[in-house]
TrEMBL record:
GO BP terms, alphabetized: cytoskeleton organization; filopodium assembly
Highest taxon listed in the record's lineage: Eukaryota
Name of the molecule in the record: FGD2 protein
SMART domains assigned to the protein according to its UniProt record, in alphabetical order: PH, RhoGEF
A single cellular component GO annotation: cytoplasm
Keywords assigned: Cytoplasm, Cytoskeleton, Metal-binding, Phosphoprotein, Repeat, Zinc, Zinc-finger
GO molecular function terms attached to this record: guanyl-nucleotide exchange factor activity; zinc ion binding
Location (main, coarse): cytoplasm
Length: 314
């Protein structure tokens, strides 16, 4: 008899899970354990660095090896009398939030491997030595580390496929659809965590360029646009180079520093977005100019082109 399509996918889930647990074993029990042992002996890199590279891989490994894989195996052995996997995946889904930390840390981890491989030849040699072993299948540590990042999207694809192949009256349909929704939410959760981390890192880099002035540092701010601008002086009918940072709540009017010690700009003026008005000026002498008026001050500014002026006004 031909196996039903949905069972083939459930078996594929089990087989890929088995391979995945082997990969996690390699990361946690071999790479992490051996690098940590050498770090404790003070021979390669600080212990903290090894911990930062591998993040929470131990928890992820324990969860899959001790809980999820055995549950799946049990279920597939009983398939003939209980052909369903939706409920097992529902139990798994909430724990997948653990991946948020690992995924968020991934770029930093890869960067640490590169930096410390240059700084510490013994560290690089130990990694190279493990990579030569048969269990590594000629792949690098970075390659193996990518696997957990790709695992949740893989569950999503397999489960979508499984639901598509289920007969309409299948007792597993409702559970499987609920499980898919839960996995989808977890994937969104880890992507949102990454996006938020990137936003904060970029924001912090901007604050550093502004000299970390206390009254402007706020983690909830959003940078909308930045760039050079000419300030028009009516009195002398000349222009001078300035720089703008537009946030969701304020416009910072800055002067580039000649001697860049620490900060790149000095904040000359802060205009609140609340109550601000912006309009184009038709000035024959200075094309592409616009007026920004706020509670604090009014500025006449000249952009480098019509497009740039429109982009600022917008």
């Amino acid at each position: 008899m031909q196996e039903p399509e949905e069972k083939k996918i459930a078996l594929e889930l089990l087989e890929t899970e088995q391979a995945y647990v082997n990969r996690l074993h390699l990361l946690d029990q071999i790479f992490y354990t051996e690098l940590m042992k050498e770090a404790k002996n003070g021979k390669t890199v600080p212990e903290e660095v090894v911990k930062m590279i591998f993040s929470n891989i131990s928890s992820i490994y324990q969860f899959h090896a001790k809980f999820f894989l055995p549950e799946l195996q049990k279920r597939m052995e009983d398939w003939s009398c209980n052909p369903r996997i939706g409920d097992v995946i529902q139990k798994l889904a909430p724990f997948l939030k653990m991946y948020g930390e690992y995924v968020k840390n991934f770029d930093k981890a890869v960067e640490l491997i590169t930096v410390w491989s240059e700084k510490s030849p013994p560290f690089q040699e130990l990694i190279a030595d493990i990579q030569k072993r048969k269990v590594c299948a000629n792949l690098t540590l970075q390659h193996h580390m990518l696997e957990p990042v790709q695992r949740i999207p893989r569950y999503e694809l397999l489960l979508k496929d499984y639901i598509r192949k289920l007969p309409p009256e299948s007792p597993d349909r409702e559970d499987a659809e609920k499980a898919l929704e839960m996995i989808f939410m977890v994937a969104k959760h880890s992507n949102a965590a990454i996006a938020e981390m990137e936003r904060l890192q970029n924001l912090w880099a901007v604050y550093q360029r502004l000299g970390l002035e206390n009254d402007i540092i706020d983690p909830s701010n959003e940078l909308i646009k930045e760039g050079p601008i000419q300030k028009i002086s009516i009195r002398t009918s000349s222009t001078s180079e300035k720089y703008l940072f537009l946030f969701n709540n304020m416009l910072l009017y800055c002067v580039p520093k000649v001697i860049q010690v620490g900060a790149e700009f000095q904040v000359h003026l802060r205009i609140d977005v609340d109550g601000m008005k912006v309009r184009e000026l038709k000035d024959m002498q200075f094309p592409h100019t616009f007026l920004v008026s706020g509670k604090q001050r009014t500025l006449e500014l000249q952009a480098r082109s019509g497009e740039e002026m429109d982009a600022w006004i917008k």
